Amino acid sequence: MAADTDPVLCGDARLIERVALGRRRAGRSVVVADEEAAGAPAPRPGETVVLVTRPDAHRAGPLRVVAAVRELPAELPVVDEAADVASELGAELVIAHAVPLSFGERSIGVDTAVDRGRATLDAARARVADHAPRLRVTTSLTRRWAHELLGEGLDADLLVVGRRRSSAQLGLVSHSAVRHAPCPVLLVPRS
Questions:
Q1: Whole-angstrom Cα distance, residue 51 to residue 188?
Q2: What is the per-residue pLDDT across 28-44, written as a single tens digit (0 to 9) for each?
Q3: Is this model's pTM higher than 0.70 or not?
Q4: Where do the UspA domain residues begin and end (predicted)?
Q5: In sequence order, what are the beta bridge partners of 98?
Q6: Is there a contact between 114 and 85 (Cβ–Cβ < 8 Å)?
Q7: Separation CA 148–CA 173 (nearest Å)
Q8: Could you tell me the domains of the chain?
């Protein structure tokens, strides 16, 4: 078995093993699902996290974990889980937020929507700094639909997204991530 400091590519089964083992060591229940064989996994109520594998995904460079967040505090579990996994893997953590292209114009305005996105990212970064001060963290604020952010162009070894806590159904963003992300996806129940 590889040492915890060994670099691992996304498609390497050892990455999946290390993430699942780390979650179990942290006392979390983990379901590992193969999206190709099972279709979009339906998280069962009571399961803490669902790890969807991508055996054919490969990314070069340092390990990168991306946490996609919509709003806090509902997605603090996503931020915490992503920070834990990134720390365990020795990976960089990118916290990403998307301001939908038409959302701002139709409701609160673009400037307000972007300001809220920045505030969300700042709060998430501060949370990680409190819990994992040595972890390298960057943030990404983009103007696009959230499901587009999580598609084929995503540059990550692992994507961490929230899912509904009490429902076996995936929402639009988590379903898109499971279907289209080029890397394994860790689904974490929101608070």
A1: 9
A2: 777 777 654 334 445 55
A3: yes
A4: 64-189
A5: 142
A6: no
A7: 9
A8: 13-189 (3.40.50.12370)
